[in-house]
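call fold target=GntR family transcriptional regulator
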Amino acid sequence: MTGKQQYWLPQIENAGKPVYLEIADAIERDVESGRLAVSARLPPQRYVADKLGVNLATVARAYTEAQQRGLIDSRVGQGTFVRRPAERRTATPPRSPIRGDMLMNMPPEPYAPALLERMQAGIEGLDDLPSLLRYQEFGGSPEARAAGARWLSPRLGDLALERLLVFPGAQASLLCVLSGFTQPGDVVCCEELTYPGFKSLAQQFGLRLVGLPLDDEGIDASAFATACNDAAVKLLYMNPTLLNPTTTTTSKKRREALIKVARAQGVMILEDDAYGALPLESLPSFARLAPDITFHVSSLAKCVGAGLRVAYMSVPEGRHAARLMSALSMTNVFASPITTAIATRWIEEGVASAALEGIRSETRARQELVARTLPVGSYVSDPEAFHLWLRLPQGWNRHAFESHLRGLGVSVAVSDAFAVTSAPPEAVRLCLGGPASRSDVQTSLAILADSLAPRPLMASMVI
């Protein structure tokens, strides 16, 4: 790239769409406005990913979407270029969404007609709609907090309502903790493979993430102690139950060891319990073992529905709640009263519990498909998780594997999205949920099993 074109970046409008569609829409706007001229060369995907703070797979999917719209064309060994108008008119129209979309980590949708009727009744039965259209209390109404405490009680026990806040989703919760309790340059420890959304937030806040090594029981506590001795660690961020991406669950013994180090070093814990409701028998949460030093975040996205943007946070004490509410007021102001009212009603009437049980049941069924289809030892997962970690056989490069699968209509997340300070392993994460049917998942798994056969060099040939 030469001249000013090398500085082009998509301008995201934050319209609530998936990021890859936001990027594709930005390409389309800039092509139509002339900001991206005919034959202009787009930046490499990795350049865009680094500048926007998103993972490479997201940008790759955006470029694919833009190409399907007839806007751009990729040339092997040369790059990606804006098509001429005549070429755009004759381009292949956009395809329907990939049925083999295993990229976004969403729960399966086992909404039986009877459950859907109960959900709909909960929405239609909202009382006093005018009051829900007004400004509300920061941190949630007493009714919303009480419902959250009830929902969290199996994992946190009895929880004082002044220690519970309601947020518009887990990402907003994490943002507010970092906004209220960190400064640029602070050191934050986490798993060496961690949630990409937290990586992006840490980058935005100028934090230094230190990825700690993992084993089958979770983070190595001695490595955490060493990191604390090497630098002033401000926060330990963890996804301790069914870790995204590896599905590792931190053992009770390891939780206690990590808490011991955190107390000795004066480190607060941020527990992202996104998947904590899924296991039938869960381990004690960090918030239950160490309530005085733990911020516990639990949303309904992974256990009821990804579109229900409601999260609950328990905080160590009242003064922390005040700082978090201040951060919330400067970002989202407060959680949507209508959405929160729906969540509250669904929890009170048992609808949320019914949805959770449906997700658990469907997840177990899909994990059985995995066990019957994929080679033994090729993946790591848990029967109660709707994602899995696929370790690639010798000869496969993770990016070549992702590209190969994309050509077959299956999308996955490469390990680069999750790696913090270590070299990304040759692995990908697969999601078994979302709108895909069980039959769709079976088809995608069959494609994956065939792709894992020992002939990867043939798949990457260019003729």
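return ok
The chain has 18 helices and 17 strands. The first helix runs from residue 19 to 33.
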